[in-house]
Every structure is written in C-alpha cells, then in structure tokens.
Amino acid sequence: MFGRYNAISTAGFIIGPVLGGYIAEDSTRFGRVCFLTFLTFMVNLALVFFFVSSSPKEHVKRTASIEKFTTDDYSINIKGFFSAFKKIAKTQPDLFAIRFLLGLCMMMFRSNFTLLLEQRFETTPKINGWIISYGSLISTLSGMMVGHVVRYYNNLSRLFKHSSIGMTITLILMTLSPSLLYFMMFSTCLSVFNSVSRVCAVDIGIQRGGVSDTGSLLGLTTSVMSISRTVAPLVSGVAMEYSVYCPSIIAIFLGSCGIALQIVYPLNRNLNVDDEQEYTNEKKKDK
After folding, report:
1. Distance between CA atoms of 256 and 102, rounded to whole angstroms?
2. How many CB atoms lie within 10 A of CB 224?
3. Which long-range contacts (CB under 8 A, 24 or more apart) does 58-65 make?
C-alpha cells in the first residue's frame, strides 16, 4: 500500500519537469509558468470539490490513534500525546536517526540537482527537465514493485539495510560517473533503492511502535523528514561553493553513517510481538 501511494504521489513529477524545461528555454515566458501553476491549482481544487467525499466510518477500519484524531468531539489530550511520544521515542530512536541521515543524504544530492547537471555535463533546461521526469518515472514504477520485493525478502530490516547500502554505493558511482549516460544509469538504481528504503522504514516503524500508535508515529516521522528537507538545501548550497562534488561527498558520508547505525543497532529488535502479528494479518487481508 505504501509503495503504491508513493508511486501515485510522484506521478505529477513526470510531466512537470518536462513542461518546465521547455518553458524555461525562453526566459521571457515566466508569465506562462505562473499562469500554468495557477491553472493547475484551480483544476486540483475543482477535482477535490466535485469528486472527493468522506467515506462512511463503518467501511473504514482505523487504528485507535487515528480514530481519536478524526472523531467529531476531538480535543487535545496533553497526557496522551506525551505518553505516545514517550513510547515511540523509547522504542525507535535509532530508526528516527537512520531516517534523518538517509533523508538528509538524498536531499543533499537532490537540492542542487539541476545546477550539478549544468556544471558537470553542461546540460540545458530542456534536458534537465527530461532527466528529472525520467527519475520520477522510475520512482513511480519502482514504488509499484516495492510490495513484491518486500514479500520476496520476507525480512524488512535486512531489506532496509541492503537498500541503504545500494543507495550509498550508487551515490559513489554517480559521483565518479564520466558521462551523462553513466550518470543516468546509476540514477535509475538510486530511485529504486530510495523507494524501497522509504517503504521499509515506514513498515518497520509501525511494527516497532505498535499499530495502535500509527497516527503519532507517522506525524513524528514526517517532522523528522521535514527537518532534513530544511537543513539539506542550506548545507548543499554552502558545499557547492567549494566544489561541485562536495554535496555528493557529504551525502555519501551521511549514507555511510546510516548504514553503520543499522549494523550497530539492528532494526529487528524491540518489536512489539502482538502489534507485529496484527499488522501482518492486516496486510495479508489486504492482499
């Protein structure tokens, strides 16, 4: 489910960069970019207004934390919030650290992606648009196949570690790529490894934190990833001032730290057995 959700959410990135690349070829077309952006938001608003409706509660099975959050008489429960936060922080601080390092690793590489392409391979905005769209297409396709990969491995912690290692090795190869063709080949592998690692991290977090605290867990995970997205552009921009290879080297170092944490603190420990069994049974029913 998470793989398919990620695949659908990145589908828009396939078309956008291509259109943006063509429009950016002419510097006098900035008004067209603004108009197309406005038009896209209006179409999205219309789709939500006319086609999105609330699902009946009896047809949607929710966890306890999400049910409390979405109930009509919802009120802030400070004691419950800190209790859930304490439980999650106690069971998986290492997972949050690993997700932060790997997220920062990817964002370091992608923050100045177009500038990196222009400086290393002298690409044009049109080519940059096609390259970004290609990466989004690969992410979409790989997201749809993540479920099959997870079932094949049957061990989330091992799959997460292997995908993290593959991601770091791919970053090294992309940094050493002598031409744009090799760079694109390794970029394909990077998109696949990144999609697999994101899904594994969410599944492991739910198993370790417990199904009952899914809402709190996803909220804290989003906050951690938002911090990495905030820090990465600043660090990447400063590093780019010294060398075009500096952001990639820092990304490789961060990825290596994430792998080291997975080796020192195995992710399959401290699992909540009851919640893990409940979560596994729910996934089997969905199939």
Report:
1. 9
2. 15
3. 63/211, 63/212, 63/213, 63/214, 63/215, 64/212, 65/212, 65/213, 65/214, 65/215, 65/216
Residue in 87, 111, 54, 39 with CA at minimum distance from that of residue 205? 87
Q: How far is CA 30 from CA 25, 36, 37, 209, 251, in A?
A: 10, 10, 11, 47, 33
Exposed/middle/buried for 265, CB within 10 Å: 0-12, 13-18, 19+? middle
Amino acid at 256: S
Dihedral, 66, 67, 70, 71 alpha carbons, nearest 10: -160
Higher pLDDT, 233 or 86: 233
C-alpha span between 12 and 3 (Å, rounded): 16
Nearest-angstrom CA–CA distance, 168 and 171: 5
User: Which pLDDT does position 72 carry in this prediction?
Assistant: 45
pLDDT tens digit sequence for 124-177? 877 888 888 888 788 778 777 887 887 888 788 889 999 999 999 999 999 999
Query: Residues of the chain with pLDDT > 70: what percent?
Result: 71
Q: What is the per-residue pLDDT for 201? A: 86
- Measured CA to CA, the distance from residue 42 to residue 59 in angstroms comes to 30
Alpha helices, DSSP H only, in 52-124? 64-70, 78-91, 93-110, 113-121
Contact 109, 171 (CB under 8 A): yes
pLDDT of residue 73: 44
Q: Which residues contact 109 (CB under 8 A, 6 or more apart)?
A: 171, 174, 236, 247, 248, 251
